[in-house]
Amino acid sequence: MATDYDAPRKTDEDQSEDSLEELKARRHEKNSGKVDEDETEAAESFELPGADLSHEELAVQVVPRQSDEFTCSSCFLVHHRSQLASDTKGVLVCRDCDL
C-alpha cells in the first residue's frame, strides 16, 4: 500500500479517539449484530467436489471412433488424423503429447 509522506500524521491519541467514536456509532446501528443469511440454507446450496451423483443420469451420446480418427497412446484421447504427430512402429501420438 502506498504511503503519502506529505500528509499530516495523527498521533496515537487522535487515532484512539477516532476508533472509539466509530465503535460508539456502530453500537447504535440496528443490524450490526444480526446475520442476514442462514448458514444451513447457504450450505445446502453448495455442491462439493466428490459429492454423491449416483442419482444423476448423463445425457451424452457416445459415438464409436471414426475411420479418420485415432487414439493417442500417450493421453488416450481420440483425435482427428490431422492431429497425428508421429506413427513410429505403430505408436500413434498426437501433436499435443509430442511436444
Describe this structure in words.
The protein has 99 residues and is an alpha+beta fold. The protein has a domain at 63-99. It is built from 3 helices and 4 strands, in the order ααββββα. The strands form 2 sheets. A two-stranded antiparallel sheet has the order 1-2. It has a two-stranded antiparallel ribbon with strand order 3-4. Strand 3 and strand 4 form a beta hairpin. The chain is elongated and about 80 Å long. The model has no long low-confidence stretch (mean pLDDT 79).
Topology:
Layout (H helix, E strand, L loop, with lengths): L11 H16 L11 H7 L23 E3 L6 E3 L3 E5 L2 E4 H4 L1
Antiparallel strand pairs: 1-2, 3-4
Characteristics:
99 residues; alpha+beta; two-stranded antiparallel sheet; 3 helices; 27% helix; elongated
